[in-house]
Structure formats: structure tokens, C-alpha cells
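Backbone-to-sequence.
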């Protein structure tokens, strides 16, 4: 029986696509109708060689792109070709692609039909349309730094720290159209969040973990797709973008632990703020936290009130009141640089009568009690200097004398 040349060419192209996978069984998604078509491959003796299109922008995405680049063009690697889509501007992914001579595409990409097997999205920030997803035979993977469905959205790492999660991780999912972070889970890895970890530290760890988990997933993509797990709604939470308004401390409502987590979550990008003598100040470089018990209950401090520990050169600020008040502390060395210091007795503390950090800058400030005269600040000049340094908006700051008698 004669076979037309067109049929032969179609068969050869089909064989090439299957040989590129070489990993058993692959699900191909029909995003228009939500159907799945089973595609059998002819061999499973060797690793697949993927033609990849990478979507990313920031330093978190660079870690995955870096590892994919190292897997490109080697006999042991799993990447046949690698090209990059990024956004306008001087973003880290664009710089890395240019330095390593990776082909760059602007967003949205053109002419991707038949050129790529699978897409990879890492910290991209744009919703991929259905017509683009459907052009990738094996779909588009997403590296997401949380244990989905917890912390869907653009800022999962910040909210992990902000809410005090003890366990997090990385998820590899398939992109679905119309919504972020709802696709089926192909792979997950858990991670125990270290105590006092910052968002920057956690982000660096999860970026490296996510890059290796991505390679692991690509090495057995067909098997992962066959055994994919749909996300449920149980435990689903949303992680919205971090806003400037989050940096305001509300002393009456936030505990010492909550303020500490807020600083570790956003402090490196958005300095925490409060009011001082009617002006906005930024609280920088916190050193830690502790609980300070006041043995003299007659003082009965209110949230935002401050006291000074001259031996440790520390300014203590009272947070939300418990049955026993637990102040937060701001330490010194020339600027505000810490939450708390080891517990001290009240006899070691120098109360600052009438001195208080108010919480809400949008409200009319309550009548302000002037600072006590300098004789009340014996050996506390460093504290005065620290107030001068953190008052970013104060053009006529108080000058601290070199010594006090």
C-alpha cells in the first residue's frame, strides 16, 4: 500500500516529538475544552531533551534560570534549547540572559508556535493567556515558593514570615489560564523555617531549592504529569503584595512578636515607621526582642510609651499590653537598632514621663508632652543622638550635647 509523502513527514515529526520526551506517558492539555489527551512515547531509555521558554524577572527567578543554563547543551543535561521572556526595564533576569547570551523575547512573546516543548514561569508577575499556554505541548510549569494552596499570590515569602509559619516549601505546578497559582501540583518540597529568619534569607533558600526541584521535575515530567494532584480549597490562603501602609506600627494592637515578624518580613524593603514629636521617623536595624517585666506596677505603661536603660544603652517601647506588660525595645549605638534586651528590673530603668510614640499618622496627634529636661537623661546622650538620626524628615533636629552633668 502506498503512503503519501505528507503522511510520512507527519509521522516523522510525531516520532521526533515523542523521542524528545522518552519518559513513558505524557498528558497533553486541551485548554479550550479542559480535556486531556494521552500521548504514548516510544522509548524511555534516555533522559528527555527539552526546548524551554523561560519567563521571569527578579533575583528569585535568576536561580532557576542559572541552573537551567548549566544544563543546556551538555550530553548529561536535559535542556536542548533555552530562551527567555522578561519584562521591560533593567531586571535581573534580563541582565543574566544578556551576560550568558540567551535569546531574549519581550512580553508578550511572538512566534512560539512549534518552537518549544514546555514553558517555565518563575516570579514573572503577569497572567499568561490561554492562547499562549496552548502552544506548549507539555504545558507551562511554575515554581512557587510556598506549599500550595497556602499563600497563593504575589508575596508568599513575606506572608510566611509575617504570619509566623514554621513550615514552608516550594511547589511546582502547571499553569492554568485565568487565575494565578491554582494549577495541579506536580512536585513539592517542605522546608522548616529557621527561627528569626528574614524574608530575604528565606527567599534565597527557597530560590535555590526551587531551582533544583524544577530540574528534578523536568527529569521525570511525564510521570509527574500523569500523577499530578489537583489543589483543593482546604487551607487555601492569599498573599497580597506588600504595601507601604503595612510599615506603620500600631503599638496598641501589635504585640512584640508581631512587630518583630513585621520587621523581618518587610523591614529590608520598607522601613517600619512611627511618629515622634509630630513627625514621621523610620525605625532601622532592629537587634531582637525580649519581654521586660516591670516590678513597679504603679507606672502602668501604655502602648507606645518609652523608657531608657542606660547600662545597655537601650530604648524600650511598650507594645500591646498583656496581663503583664511586655515592652518592645529599641537599642542604640548612634541609631535605633534593636527591639529588646535581656530582662531588667525596674530599678535599673529610667522612665521617660510623657514620652510616647503615637500610632496613627492620619489622626490628629494628641497633645504632646515636651521631652523631659536633659538632667533626666543622665548618661543617655546616645539615645538623644539616635532620635536625631532616625528622624528623616526633621530639618531642625535637636542637637545633643557631648556630655551631661
Amino acid at each position: 500500500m502506498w503512503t503519501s509523502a505528507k503522511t510520512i513527514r507527519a509521522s516523522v515529526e510525531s516520532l521526533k516529538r515523542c523521542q524528545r520526551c522518552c519518559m513513558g506517558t505524557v498528558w497533553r492539555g486541551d485548554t479550550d475544552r479542559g480535556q486531556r489527551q494521552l500521548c504514548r512515547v516510544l522509548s524511555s531509555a534516555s533522559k528527555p531533551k527539552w526546548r524551554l521558554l523561560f519567563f521571569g524577572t527578579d533575583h528569585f527567578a535568576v536561580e532557576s534560570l542559572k541552573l537551567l543554563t548549566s544544563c543546556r547543551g551538555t550530553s548529561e543535561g536535559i535542556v536542548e534549547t533555552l530562551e527567555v521572556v522578561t519584562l521591560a526595564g533593567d531586571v535581573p533576569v534580563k541582565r543574566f540572559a544578556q551576560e550568558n547570551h540567551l535569546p531574549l523575547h519581550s512580553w508578550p512573546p511572538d512566534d512560539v508556535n512549534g518552537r518549544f516543548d514546555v514553558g517555565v514561569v518563575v516570579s514573572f508577575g503577569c497572567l499568561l493567556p490561554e492562547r499562549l499556554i496552548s502552544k506548549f505541548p507539555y504545558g507551562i510549569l511554575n515554581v512557587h515558593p510556598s506549599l500550595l494552596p497556602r499563600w497563593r499570590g504575589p508575596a508568599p515569602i513575606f506572608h510566611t514570615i509575617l504570619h509566623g509559619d514554621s513550615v514552608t516549601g516550594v511547589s511546582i505546578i502547571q499553569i492554568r489560564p485565568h487565575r494565578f497559582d491554582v494549577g495541579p501540583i506536580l512536585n513539592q518540597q517542605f522546608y522548616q523555617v529557621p527561627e528569626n529568619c528574614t524574608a530575604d534569607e528565606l527567599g534565597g533558600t527557597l530560590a535555590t531549592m526551587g531551582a533544583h526541584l524544577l530540574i528534578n521535575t523536568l527529569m521525570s515530567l511525564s510521570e509527574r504529569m500523569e500523577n499530578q494532584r489537583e489543589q483543593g480549597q482546604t487551607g487555601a490562603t492569599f498573599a497580597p503584595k506588600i504595601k507601604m501602609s503595612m510599615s506603620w506600627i500600631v503599638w496598641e494592637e501589635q504585640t512584640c512578636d508581631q512587630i518583630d515578624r513585621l520587621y523581618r518580613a518587610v523591614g529590608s524593603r520598607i522601613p517600619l515607621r512611627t511618629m515622634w514629636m509630630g513627625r514621621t521617623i523610620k525605625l532601622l536595624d532592629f537587634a531582637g526582642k525580649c519581654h521586660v517585666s516591670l516590678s513597679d506596677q504603679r507606672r502602668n505603661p501604655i502602648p507606645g510609651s518609652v523608657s531608657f536603660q542606660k547600662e545597655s544603652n537601650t530604648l524600650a517601647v511598650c507594645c500591646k499590653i498583656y496581663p503583664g506588660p511586655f515592652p518592645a525595645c529599641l537599642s542604640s549605638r548612634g541609631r535605633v537598632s534593636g527591639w529588646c534586651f535581656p530582662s531588667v528590673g525596674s530599678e535599673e530603668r529610667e522612665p521617660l514621663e510623657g514620652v510616647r510614640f503615637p500610632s496613627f499618622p492620619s489622626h490628629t496627634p494628641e497633645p504632646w508632652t515636651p521631652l523631659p529636661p536633659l538632667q533626666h537623661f543622665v548618661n543617655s546622650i546616645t539615645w538623644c543622638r539616635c532620635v536625631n538620626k532616625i528622624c528623616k524628615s526633621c530639618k531642625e533636629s535637636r542637637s545633643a550635647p557631648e556630655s551631661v552633668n
